[in-house]
Design goal:
By secondary structure, the protein is of the alpha/beta class. Helices cover 38% and strands 22% of the residues. The longest helix has 17 residues. It comes from Salinarimonas soli.
């Protein structure tokens, strides 16, 4: 599966927000392989906001640009709830802005090891708070 050691992520509820169906399925498959449960996925900001505000979520993997709209309102809602966030973007760290420049990010295209590293770091930072 992956060469990176992971903690027991069985049952970890991860919100996936991604507007490209093939990328969304790839991220979902990676997370399922790690034992996570998928929340969503959401392909548009309104659906993502609904889930971010009301669903039981342990972490989130968010595309920075969702159908031409910035993800920041969804990130704000999740941050207010203390949910760890990993951003995905073709721009890497330069795709982040404002309060999110120090968040964990994986640059598209990415492999499962990249996602594991970023999600592990995000979960560890959250647990330390």
């Amino acid at each position: 599966m992956t060469m990176i050691e992971t903690k027991d992520w069985n049952g970890l509820r991860v919100l996936v927000v991604e507007d490209e169906a093939m990328v969304s399925m790839l991220v979902e498959d990676m997370l399922l392989d790690l034992g996570c449960e998928i929340v969503g996925p959401a392909a548009r900001i309104p659906a993502a906001l609904d889930l971010a505000s009301s669903a039981e979520i342990d972490a989130a993997v968010l595309d920075v640009n969702v159908a031409g709209q910035a993800i920041w309102p969804v990130a704000d809602a999740l941050s207010a709830r203390g949910v760890p966030i990993v951003f995905t973007t073709g721009y890497g760290e330069s795709g982040l802005q404002g309060a999110y420049v120090s968040h964990d990010v994986v640059q598209k295209p990415f492999q499962i090891d990249d996602l594991v590293r970023a999600l592990s770091a995000s979960l560890e930072k959250s647990a330390a708070r």
